[in-house]
């Protein structure tokens, strides 16, 4: 190792001069100084390389802590770490619009709303029970790949837990959210998995909701409560036969009298009373429009 050789070389020259074996002159001092300087240089380079290696190990560890090991998607920890920046940006846009009375400027690369899509694989327990957990893992990995084709690179794709996935996408209009939900439903229902020689088909149920839930009071409801609404809609899709989606984007429900404490119960009452009517897929009539990618 050069970082060890040159200091040793310089030390040998110095000792030989100190004990009188070599004369103390320009011809002996120069190699000693050269050896010491080169030793320090190579030692510094080795140290810098080691520091870079440690920093990379820290980055790799941090990255793995934000990634689901099975699917390669992000995990809950990642979302809770990074979602606040998106939430604050969307809130600022809505609050500025309310303050100035001007519509939010549309941006092609980002939307002025965060749409939370909560996705659950239908009858996943049946797959595990009949084909084994290894088959279930293969299905989860396949679903993750489909999500990556349906949604954009800028969207947050998260394995929420078990067979549930959460996707956060920036969109402008309800029409876009419905298009994406239908495109996902079609993509998964047409996917075939080869499990132990058997062709296995799957479907999914999806619920989605828009943040801010009340555009006229943007900060009134927390984004996690919007996920709760998506969860309510997801199970409404399941109760209607699965392989479907339900979503709330635009609605006429007033924010007056609603707090973060009573929000969920008020939404449930509004849905029961039909005050809030979710958008939903309509696959029974066979009249499902072909969906284009929003990538």
List the main descriptive attributes of the protein structure presented here.
295 residues; alpha+beta; disordered C terminus
Q: Major β-sheet, in short? A: 6 strands, mixed
Mean pLDDT: 83
Q: Beta-sheet strand percentage?
A: 15-25%
Broad shape: flat
How many strands? Answer: 8
* Helical amount: 40-55%
| Radius of gyration (Å) | 30 Å
End-to-end separation in angstroms reads 52 Å
The string of secondary-structure elements, in order, is: HHHEHHEEHEEEHEHE
Strand order of the largest sheet: 2-3-1-6-7-8
Q: Give the count of helical stretches.
A: 8
Task: Walk me through this protein's architecture.
The protein has 295 residues and is an alpha+beta fold. It has helices at residues 2-18, 26-65, 76-100, 124-131, 133-150, 174-189, 223-239, 263-272, and strands at 113-121, 156-161, 164-171, 192-195, 198-201, 204-211, 245-248, 279-280. The strands form two sheets. The protein has a six-stranded mixed beta sheet with strand order 2-3-1-6-7-8, sandwiched between helices. Strands 4-5 form a two-stranded antiparallel ribbon. Strand 2 (156-161) and strand 3 form a beta hairpin. Helix 1 (2-18) runs antiparallel to helix 2 and helix 4 (124-131) packs across helix 5 (133-150). The longest helix has 40 residues, at 26-65. The protein is flat and about 105 Å long.
